[in-house]
TrEMBL record:
<keyword id="KW-0378">Hydrolase</keyword>
<keyword id="KW-0547">Nucleotide-binding</keyword>
<dbReference type="GO" id="GO:0003724">
    <property type="term" value="F:RNA helicase activity"/>
</dbReference>
<dbReference type="GO" id="GO:0016787">
    <property type="term" value="F:hydrolase activity"/>
</dbReference>
<keyword id="KW-0694">RNA-binding</keyword>
<feature type="domain" description="Helicase C-terminal">
    <location>
        <begin position="279"/>
        <end position="453"/>
    </location>
</feature>
<protein>
    <recommendedName>
        <fullName>RNA helicase</fullName>
        <ecNumber>3.6.4.13</ecNumber>
    </recommendedName>
</protein>
<comment type="similarity">
    <text>Belongs to the DExH box helicase family.</text>
</comment>
<keyword id="KW-0067">ATP-binding</keyword>
<dbReference type="GO" id="GO:0005524">
    <property type="term" value="F:ATP binding"/>
</dbReference>
<feature type="domain" description="Helicase ATP-binding">
    <location>
        <begin position="25"/>
        <end position="192"/>
    </location>
</feature>
<keyword id="KW-0347">Helicase</keyword>
<dbReference type="GO" id="GO:0003723">
    <property type="term" value="F:RNA binding"/>
</dbReference>
Length: 681
């Protein structure tokens, strides 16, 4: 054994999960379903699959085990498998492997496979009984993602047919009772955690302590400005969520009379709809200049505000100084090579600051964190039942999430947590987050139910841990019938079957399919990618006219979507000569969004080739048609039946003349007719 191996074993033995190893193995051997609950970082994800692997391999009969451990995200499936392999002193693909969409590493002797929940669902499509699998471990069930809830319904039904199959559910927080009762009182194993004390500051304490002044101005930074302007112009008035109103009421009723006058004044300027970049910058700077060593973790909502904040911090004299600060980001769409950087220790005297989404809340552990900043929000898909559209919006987190974020600070030594909102706002948070299945549209899920041949959609969903409302289910089914993915009897059509192979919203999938069929995939890829990221057209308040002018040169008489296609094509040419940034700057485009569109296009094209919609040898984009009317017709078809509201908002499509309308309707008929033909044969 190498010294490295010995050190690793010693580390593993120090984890709380290791101390419960025998008890865990024994409860698993005596029960078909076991729930394991424990603090983040106690060793559930990395250790428990290994315990099973080791005990099975060492067992007298030498039974060949086959363990599948699901992770809610690609990034965790990949990084966890890497970590586990290295703990075992092996290369990935030996006894430990992983599989995520379009990527994987698995060998003949792989007995422990980490994969995304989606991958296991797909496997169930081909092999209903999970032949050869001995253990299924579903990790991070507390997140209550749609796929996980869906998987549990299927597994629950499978268990009686596979009595020797073991199911292990792992969760970070205390909601274990709910899962236990769903699985007929399955035993719960608690792993005690340990954290050092964390000093907690809410906004009022931060202001009082530092004397920082909030003004209406420093709450509206560039990012916020752009955002607010957009909201005023485009967003149809949304019904406020229950939590948002509770938070507003709490602020109205709050009483800060024990605080200094300056703090009270500051608090009256606090804007709950904004993330105050300036305050974050100020606190970070304070930490860097005055505080003891230790990494800083900043919880933001998503890729867009993370990159805006990063841009801002890089211009700061202290925070942007690479000799003093190692500024890193962490979010779901990052490549695993980039992600690996966040685990690394910085050089002496350099402070590591990680700007992250909520993926660092539970699924990823960054070891050296001592300071946490929590903006109090996370992006969550929510569902607008009126328009039947999903939207990804920053929403207030739950108390459980806030506690998790705070806990990240006390792992290595006593820590500090700065919540960037007042205490009364925290008190207004919900205890738990609403499960995804209850807050998002169910269209994709319904398609999956059908493709897995699980019978009636409503009957199937009624067996969920928490079932969605009947009306929401009916809406989803109705939508799928209207767009032609399901027939009148709720059976999958050919279009429906194609859509189940594209893991994205049906409307985007439809566009991709038609783009491939009609040989104009290149522009359609841009449109679909563009609809999945933050709008790249920037409209800063003080340069609104210039920005609109810049945009109009792309539009001509066409639509916003086509403007995007042209802007992207221009960017791609400029980027080839390394002039992408300048091009964006000149044309009021977000260079981050352009890069994201570029990356997504690549991913989508792999998917489209993967399922055989285009020939895998098709490489050159130039061969594709760029018939404007055809492209518009496809976009229209994709958005149908949502076109009316789109046209009404004048945001995404501009039907400027009667002829335009006729051309589109005509093309629309053509496309529908084409699908009838395909169906008929
Ligand atoms: P849990 O799933 O209970 O949250 P994990 O099994 O993910 O915990 O992690 C257990 C411990 O292993 C963490 O506290 C951390 O110290 C260490 N660890 C996990 N992943 C890594 C990694 N990629 N690099 C370094 N240490 C890691
Ligand atoms: Mg874990």
């Amino acid at each position: 054994e190498s010294p490295e191996g010995r050190r690793m074993l010693e580390f593993r033995r120090s984890l709380p999960a290791y101390k419960k190893k025998e008890a865990i193995l024994s409860v698993i051997s005596r029960n078909q379903v076991v729930i394991i609950s424990g603090e983040t970082g106690c060793g559930k994800t990395t250790q428990i699959p290994q315990f099973i692997l080791e005990s099975e391999v060492e067992s007298v009969c030498g039974a060949a085990c086959n363990i599948i451990c699901t992770q809610p995200r690609r990034i965790s499936a990949m990084s966890v498998s890497e970590r586990v392999a290295s703990e075992r002193g092996e290369k990935l693909g030996e006894s430990v492997g992983y599989k995520v969409r379009l990527e994987g590493m698995k060998g003949r002797d792989t007995h422990l496979l980490f994969c995304t929940t989606g991958i296991l669902l797909r496997r169930l499509l081909a092999d209903r009984k999970l032949k050869g699998v001995t253990h299924v471990i579903v990790d991070e069930i507390h997140e209550r993602g749609m796929n996980e809830d869906f998987l549990l319904i299927i597994l629950k039904e499978l268990l009686p047919h596979r009595p020797e199959l073991k199911l292990i559910l792992m969760s970070a927080t205390l909601d274990a009772e709910l899962f236990s009762s769903y699985f007929n009182g399955a035993p719960i194993m608690f792993i005690p955690g340990f954290t050092y004390p964390v000093r907690t500051h809410f906004l009022e304490n931060i202001l009082e302590m530092t004397g920082y002044r909030l003004t209406p101005y420093n709450q509206i930074d560039d990012y916020g400005q752009e955002r607010m302007w957009k909201m005023n112009k485009h967003a149809p008035r949304k019904r406020k969520s229950q939590i948002a109103s509770a938070v507003e009421d709490a602020i109205m009723a709050a009483d800060f009379k024990d605080y200094s006058l300056q703090t009270q004044e500051s608090l009256s300027c606090w804007n709950p709809d904004c993330i105050g970049f300036s305050l974050i910058e100020y606190i970070l700077c304070n930490i860097c200049e005055n505080e003891r060593p230790g990494a800083v973790l900043v919880f933001m909502t998503g890729w867009d505000d993370i990159s805006s904040l990063k841009e801002k911090l890089l211009t700061h004299t202290v925070l942007g100084d690479a000799n003093r600060v190692l500024l890193l980001t962490c979010h779901g769409s990052m490549a695993s090579s980039e992600q690996r950087l966040i685990f690394e220790e910085p050089e002496d005297g350099v402070r590591k600051i990680v700007l992250t989404t909520n993926i660092a809340e539970t699924s990823i552990t960054i070891n050296d964190v001592v300071f946490v900043l929590d903006c109090g929000k996370a992006k969550e898909t929510s569902y607008d039942a009126l328009n039947n559209t999903p939207c990804l919006l920053p929403t207030w987190i739950s108390k459980v999430s806030a506690k998790q974020r705070r806990g990240r600070a006390g792992r290595v030594q006593p820590g500090e947590c700065y919540h960037l909102y007042p205490r009364c706002v925290y008190d207004a948070f919900a205890e738990y987050q609403l499960p995804e299945i209850l807050r998002t549209p169910l269209q994709s899920l319904c398609l999956q139910i059908k493709s897995l041949r699980l019978g009636s959609i409503s009957e199937f969903l009624s067996r969920a841990l928490q079932s969605p409302e009947t009306l929401v289910v009916q809406n989803a089914i109705e939508y799928l019938k209207i767009i032609g993915a399901l027939d009148e009897d709720e059976n999958l059509t050919i279009l429906g079957r194609c859509l189940t192979m594209l893991p994205m919203e049906p409307k985007l999938g439809k566009m991709l399919i038609l783009g491939a069929i009609f040989n104009c995939l290149d522009p359609i890829l841009t449109v679909v990618a563009g609809l999945s990221v933050r709008d790249p057209f920037l409209t800063p308040l003080d340069k609104r006219d210039l920005a609109e002018e810049a945009k109009s040169q792309f539009c001509g008489a066409y639509s916003d979507h086509l403007a995007l296609v042209r802007a992207y094509e221009g960017w791609r040419d400029a980027e080839m000569d390394l002039g992408g940034y300048e091009y964006c700057w000149k044309n009021f485009l977000s260079s981050q969004s352009m890069k994201a569109i570029d990356a997504l296009r690549r991913e989508f094209i792999c998917l489209v080739k993967d399922i055989g919609l285009v020939d895998s040898n098709t490489a050159s984009c130039n061969e594709w048609s760029s018939d404007v009317n055809l492209i518009r017709a496809i976009i229209c078809y994709g958005l149908y039946p949502g076109i009316c509201s789109v046209v009404h908002n004048e945001k995404s499509f501009s039907l400027k003349t009667m002829e335009d309308g006729q051309v589109l309707l005509y093309s629309l008929c053509l496309i529908q007719w084409c699908f009838c033909l395909v169906e008929a044969y």
